Amino acid sequence: MRYFLEIAYDGTDYHGWQMQPNARTVQEVLNKSLSTILRQPIETVGSGRTDTGVHAGQQFVHFEIAQELQNNAFCHRLNRLLPDDISAKKLYQVGPEAHARFDAIARTYEYRITQVKNPFLQRYAYYLNRQVDVDKLNKAAASLLQFEDFTTFSKVKGDTLHYRCQMLEANWQQEGENLLFTIKANRFLRGMVRLVVGTLLDVGTGKISMDDFKNKIAAQDRKQASGAAPATGLYLTQVTYPEGYFEQQQEKFEQTKAAATEE
Predict the structure, then answer these.
(1) Other beta carbons less than 10 A from residue 232's beta carbon
(2) pLDDT tens string 81-117
(3) Which residue from 251, 3, 9 is spatially nearest to 124, judged by alpha carbons?
(4) Are 16 and 49 in contact (CB under 8 A)?
(5) 8 CB-side CA count, 13 A
(6) Hey, CA dihedral for 124, 233, 85, 21, is it positive or negative?
(7) What is the pTM of this model?
């Protein structure tokens, strides 16, 4: 039987989401905890990858096990074993072909900036000690929706097959002394959001013009991007699935369980 697990994590002390041979990752810790609870090796597949130091308010994974699991009791047991910086939020029963990554239709990221030095935000927001023009930031961000190829904001020698993304939303909000950037697309390239933020901030601080920003994207040249913004302020906040997805998957789960019982 297949399950989706919704989790959240503080990525500060991890080398990203995905398993790595010589580094502590969120996936590694989650897999070990699941394997301990369920008393058998468990491997998860995530809805996306977050880089070193990046946080997630919502991340989905899927895994398989023969036994039937119940949401509240299972998450309670798992949270008792997980470290304080990872939380199991909800368990979903899904059909045998459900896929946490490939079935998702959009991801939303937020980037948080503080313009006042605050020791309590040092792990969770980027301290920017320069003034920025929020109007310029929003005009530049809006222009992202005019493009499809984001090679400029991709990591060098990435393993992706193409650099096209359908941009759905990109905007900045001023919240007192804080800035919040929200960006939503059907998919993101590795390191893309931090490169986008770093280049947008160059527009907001007057280092480059709006036309420069558009030309950099159109050039489809990674060397045109500004430096990446620090991971500290970046959050994966929402993974979107088609409307009614989990209700449909629950029905498929029940059908799979009934078929197994008949056998």
Answers:
(1) 20
(2) 999 999 999 999 999 999 999 999 999 999 999 999 9
(3) 9
(4) yes
(5) 9
(6) negative
(7) 0.94
85 is an active site residue: no
Q: Which two tokens stand for residue 214?
A: 């558009």
- The catalytic position among 10, 51, 103, 202 is 51
Q: Class assignment of domain 106-237? A: alpha beta
Q: Is the pLDDT of residue 263 over 70?
A: no
Render 3-65 in DSSP notation, one character per residue.
Answer: EEEEEEE--TTSS-SS-BTTB--HHHHHHHHHHHHHTS----EESS---TT-EEEEEEEEEE-
Give the residue range(s) of CATH 3.30.70.660 domains in the chain. 106-237
Class of 2-102+242-262 in CATH: alpha beta
Q: At what angle do helices 26-38 and 71-81 cross, to 10 degrees?
A: 120
Q: Is the Cβ–Cβ distance between 173 and 182 less than 8 Å?
A: yes
